[in-house]
């Protein structure tokens, strides 16, 4: 199930991987390996490995093309649309 993915060769459980993905994608200013270490209750080495793999995956297709042709910086502010 994890072959040829960022999860391959990892001893971190899939549940912790999913939680790490959530934390990294929902953070405004980024996440350090030390923060993941504390939140996931894993070693620093494992947290660094997870950070590295997730950041690598974000540079590959299809995510890389979502940044545009020049792969520049994308900056967003919070906005709520809709409501009652």
Number of strands: 0
Order of helices and strands: HHH
- Major sheet: none
**Mean model confidence by pLDDT:** 81
Tell me the overall shape. Answer: globular
Q: Evaluate the radius of gyration.
A: 15 Å
Oligomeric assembly:
single chain
Number of alpha- plus pi-helical segments: 3
Strand content: under 5%
Helix proportion of residues, in percent?
Answer: 40-55%
The assigned structural class equals mainly alpha
Low-confidence stretches are none
What distance lies between the first and last C-alpha atoms, to the nearest angstrom? 43 Å
Walk me through what this model shows.
There is one protein chain. With 84 residues, the protein is an all-alpha fold. It has a domain of 54 residues. The protein has three helices and no strands. The longest helix is centred in the middle third of the chain and has 16 residues. The radius of gyration is 15 Å and the shape is globular.
Blueprint of the fold:
Layout: H1 14-26, H2 33-40, H3 44-59
Helix pairs in contact: 2-3
Question: Briefly, what is this?
Answer:
The protein is an all-alpha fold. The chain has helices at 14-26, 33-40, 44-59. It has a domain at 14-67.
What features would you highlight for this structure?
mainly alpha; 84 residues
């Amino acid at each position: 199930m994890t072959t040829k993915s960022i999860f391959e060769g990892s001893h971190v459980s899939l549940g912790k991987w999913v939680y790490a993905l959530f934390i990294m994608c929902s953070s405004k200013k980024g996440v350090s390996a030390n923060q993941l270490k504390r939140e996931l209750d894993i070693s620093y080495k494992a947290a660094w490995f997870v950070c590295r793999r997730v950041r690598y995956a974000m540079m590959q297709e299809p995510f890389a093309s979502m940044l545009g042709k020049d792969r520049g910086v994308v900056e967003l502010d919070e906005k709520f649309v809709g409501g009652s």
